[in-house]
Amino acid sequence: MKKSFKLSFLVLITAFFTAGCDSTEKSPEEICREGGGEWKEMPDACVDSCESQRDGIMCAQVITEGCDCGEGRCWNGKSCEPL
Fold it and tell me: Is the pTM of this model over 0.85?
């Protein structure tokens, strides 16, 4: 009887602590791939953002991981789009 009570209590506590967890949240890498890009290291802090490519924003020269959309496209934060 004690074992089944302990097991039931453990299951109940585990369910309580995991109920609020959203395990379906996607990583930036997944969002990038689903948006048509490739996640990789980029040579600056602006990565492949549309804003930096269209507005000519100065970017820090530091290796940064980000979404690369390829030639003629840029990353809008959710998907790749034409420049």
Answer: no
